[in-house]
Amino acid sequence: xxxxxxxxxxxxxxxxxxxxxxxxxxxxxxxxxxxxxxxxxxxxxxxxxxxxxxxxxxxxxxxxxxxxxxxxxxxxxxxxxxxxxxxxxxxxxxxxxxxxxxxxxxxxxxxxxxxxxxxxxxxxxxxxxxxxxxxxxxxxxxxxxxxxxxxxxxxxxxxxxxxxxxxxxxxxxxxxxxxxxxxxxxxxxxxxxxxxxxxxxxxxxxxxxxxxxxxxxxxxxxxxxxxxxxxxxxxxxxxxxxxxxxxxxxxxxxxxxxxxxxxxxxxxxxxxxxxxxxxxxxxxxxxxxxxxxxxxxxxxxxxxxxxxxxxxxxxxxxxxxxxxxxxxxxxxxxxxxxxxxxxxxxxxxxxxxxxxxxxxxxxxxxxxxxxxxxxxxxxxxxxxxxxxxxxxxxxxxxxxxxxxxxxxxxxxxxxxxxxxxxxxxxxxxxxxxxxxxxxxxxxxx
Length: 445
What we know:
By secondary structure, the protein is of the alpha/beta class. It has helices at residues 5-9, 11-18, 39-54, 79-83, 150-154, 170-179, 199-213, 235-247, 341-361, 409-425, and strands spanning 29-35, 64-67, 72-74, 93-95, 104-107, 111-115, 120-123, 128-136, 141-142, 161-162, 183-189, 220-226, 251-254, 256-262, 267-272, 277-281, 284-286, 291-292, 326-328, 373-380, 383-390, 394-395.
């Protein structure tokens, strides 16, 4: 058992001595513990189990534990389709227990504290769980109270305020879009990190197209207020989106951060780059709330100064040598890329390979993550701009011969029809590898 700093530092010897010993499904000691059962946690837990089996070194049922108290698992990427009237929100979630195979142990609790020097965690009930290797896949936190008046406005059916970033409110988005007959429709994006940075404008483009298709566009002014300096972080796609904005008559207000909502008077207050504020009247207001690291991670010994789990951006292994048996992926990690489901898809096999190698040989493999992520940007019904890029905001496209800077119908149907099916049938089972489909990436030895 890894019981102290000195033993953790000597990870190659300790992990080799433990890597294939049996553990009990009822034990509080596991070979691998995965914290979080979102798309990252489920996919990587299954991939790790399969990787050991493929190497002829199968783990026993119960050797991998997933810790998460959630009742449901949510396909968060699909909420834009709900807000656009293309799907029912009931199709975006399934009971978590139904998605965890019997060979994985589910601990239906949440983690309270990490003790990396003793390779253990403590749950909110006080239960101590130890591990040989740890994967952190907790996601991030949506800070609804970060905007004054937002929580109250979201539960008020007459406020005109909605957000696709919650299961409870994503259908309100569609109701507000459908009921609007005239006035000002405002869509916001905060400065800083958000889940899928393109989503705030995806719903705007869909609403605008809906207004046009139902002969309401000439009576509704659509404006985009963003805390960011441009439409998108990658210049190639940002330039295209800004041209679309101007061609379609959408107002663009950059470096305008929403700080408060006065829902009884339908007023939104934005803070500008120079520190001054401006009040704006709205009829309908779609809000993307600020986001950040989870509270229980802040101050933990495994996170950096910003609150993200500190990992090597290529190997996804913890940056501290004494915590070499800790890995992280997805929204909670410090990897400097956009926080999207496609980033998780690209990270999972790299993390899996490196974790397996550490437990098998004491060192990481040659597998490296290059920062690949993707944002399927809906720009209207029947069209989508597929933004794909890697570290350094450099485009890395799957279909370069199709000119991915132009929205098209093929990409639209990938998001609307293929991706949801692939998610529920393959990704959460660790069987989906993005642009490689069902074929696991190979890594040189």
